[in-house]
Design a protein that fits this description.
Blueprint: E1 9-23, E2 38-51, E3 54-67, E4 70-86, H1 90-119, H2 132-146
Antiparallel strand pairs: 1-4, 2-3, 3-4
Helix pairs in contact: 1-2
Length: 161
Amino acid sequence: MAEQDLTPVFQIQRVYLKDLSLEQPNSPRILMEQAQPQVEINLGVQAEGVADGIFEVTVTATVTTKAGDKTVFLVEAKQAGIFEIRNVPADQLQPVIGIACPGIVYPYLRAIVSDVCTRAGFPPVLLTEVNFQAMFEAQRAQAALQAGGAGPNGSAVIANA
């Protein structure tokens, strides 16, 4: 009888641009305005099992730039990666998917957002570095709070948003 190999496996199968959208709803008039635009950036992470031991992790950035109450431009980009993750202890699987995988995908997303803004005729929007571990822990704390759970020391989890 052959022994089953239980060596942990973590491999990047592919990193790819899943979706990209650029909107300039008020062009060309908004381009003539001299107002300093306000930039709002929202990030999200999603993960989905696609097969046994294969996961797709998607990091989404939505960049909304407004001058006053008018949108100058809106960029939404979804960068994804397919990862093979096998023989990882159950308590370590979610941190690998929620921290390590987005950390690999995110630099590609940063480059895409910057490039799209530049090609659209605007200064590049440079997404800052993200601490995915802190983001993961905050999401976990928020989920525990919503479930009425207790924190690691038995007290209620308090999260600041």
